[in-house]
């Protein structure tokens, strides 16, 4: 008895913890509160599938209840054999046809939605962004505007934005659940989708394909702003001068160290397409470091001193000379001065 009581208590505790954890998460990292066209139509299909499953469950339970009540064994009928329905063609046709009909009801809108979200008929008239997945960060190339940025994608509200998605190394998966569904990022081909956000704000994205030890840390953001703010952001990004002098002597020292330690060989400032690491043009406008940590002076110094401790398996580790704390501090001060636009995630709200 005591053994069973222990198991019951464990199940109750597990249920309570599951209920509490079900409420954890970020406001704009959920597929259940759609704020974009792709997420909205996906939600409609989810609701349709849930309705079908509930209807099937209710009907099966009704039939089951009727069967166990009406046809239960009665006293005096221990050897009674009920009427057999084996080989009844009508019944076999019915319970074969019903699943087929249900699959068709679910498959037709699903197929239409898949083709709809991949339709690029008006791509030439819309914003086009080349999205490249890397271990463990995302790069965004605004081909028409000749802008390069990483980790934070800026788009205007209520506008179709076409994404050409590929990978620079292994298979990744681009997913912003509140705005749209998933799309694989493959190293050998480009997949196209479009996104359209209904509300301004900051929406979190994830890599949805296991891609290495820091897969769970491969986060990014889509910053949705008004058309006017987007136009201003584009102008700000275009006018960036990579050679601009920092405002303080310490930041200038950091800039010199940044160049002397070959950081500029991997990280572009401006619109250089040749960089192999994240673009740092608007680095200080971001609110997170490496996608997951708060962008603070202390966290940035720690990252420069030991990036492996934050993101295991990242390609930055070991690819530059070891820095002293003073050197890392100077470089951090320089990087935190790269705030070339007043349009940022905090100004967009919902951060």
Automatic annotation (TrEMBL):
Keywords: Copper, Electron transport, Heme, Iron, Membrane, Metal-binding, Oxidoreductase, Respiratory chain, Translocase, Transmembrane, Transmembrane helix, Transport. One of its GO terms (biological process) is ATP synthesis coupled electron transport. It is found in: Cell membrane; Membrane. It is a multi-pass membrane protein. It catalyses: 4 Fe(II)-[cytochrome c] + O2 + 8 H(+)(in) = 4 Fe(III)-[cytochrome c] + 2 H2O + 4 H(+)(out). Residues 23-121 form the Cytochrome oxidase subunit II transmembrane region profile domain. Binds a copper A center. It is an enzyme of class 7 (translocase). Residues 124-236 form the Cytochrome oxidase subunit II copper A binding domain. Its EC number is 7.1.1.9. The chain crosses the membrane at residues 46-71, 92-115. GO terms for cellular component: plasma membrane. CDD domains: CuRO_CcO_Caa3_II (cd04213). Its main location: membrane. Residues 249-339 form the Cytochrome c domain. Its cofactor is Cu cation. One of its GO terms (molecular function) is oxidoreductase activity. Pfam families: COX2, COX2_TM, Cytochrom_C. Belongs to the cytochrome c oxidase subunit 2 family. Subunits I and II form the functional core of the enzyme complex. Electrons originating in cytochrome c are transferred via heme a and Cu(A) to the binuclear center formed by heme a3 and Cu(B). This is Cytochrome c oxidase subunit 2. The lineage of its organism: Bacteria, Bacillati, Bacillota, Bacilli, Bacillales.
């Amino acid at each position: 008895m005591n053994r069973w009581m222990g198991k019951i208590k464990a199940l109750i505790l597990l249920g309570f913890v599951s209920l509490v954890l079900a409420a954890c998460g970020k406001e704009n990292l959920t597929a259940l509160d759609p704020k974009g066209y792709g997420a909205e139509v996906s939600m409609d299909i989810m609701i349709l599938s849930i309705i079908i499953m509930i209807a099937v469950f209710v009907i099966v339970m009704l039939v089951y209840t009727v069967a166990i009540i009406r046809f239960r064994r009665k006293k005096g009928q221990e050897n009674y054999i009920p009427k057999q329905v084996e080989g009844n063609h009508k019944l076999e046709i019915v319970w074969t046809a019903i699943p087929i009909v249900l699959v068709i009801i679910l498959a037709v809108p699903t197929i239409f939605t898949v083709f709809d979200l991949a339709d690029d008929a008006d791509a030439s008239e819309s914003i086009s962004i080349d999205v490249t997945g890397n271990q463990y960060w995302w790069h965004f190339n605004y081909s028409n505007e000749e802008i390069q940025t990483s980790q934070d994608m800026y788009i205007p509200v209520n506008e179709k934005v076409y994404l050409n998605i590929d990978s620079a190394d292994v298979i990744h998966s681009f997913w912003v659940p509140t705005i749209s569904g998933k799309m694989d990022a493959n190293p050998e081909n480009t997949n196209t989708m479009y996104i359209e956000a209904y509300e301004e704000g900051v929406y979190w994205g994830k890599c949805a394909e296991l891609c290495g030890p820091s897969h769970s840390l491969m986060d990014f953001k889509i910053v949705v702003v008004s058309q006017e703010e987007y136009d201003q952001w584009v102008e700000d990004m275009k006018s960036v001068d990579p050679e601009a002098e920092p405002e303080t002597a310490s930041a200038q020292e950091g800039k010199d160290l940044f160049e002397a330690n070959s950081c500029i060989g991997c990280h572009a400032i401006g619109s250089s397409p040749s960089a192999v690491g994240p673009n740092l043009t608007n680095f200080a406008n971001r609110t997170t470091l490496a996608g997951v940590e708060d962008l603070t002076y202390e966290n940035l110094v720690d990252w420069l001193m030991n990036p492996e401790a934050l993101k295991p398996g990242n390609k930055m580790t070991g690819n530059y000379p070891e820095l002293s704390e003073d050197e890392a501090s100077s470089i951090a001060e320089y990087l935190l001065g790269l705030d070339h636009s007043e349009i940022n995630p905090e100004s967009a709200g919902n951060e």
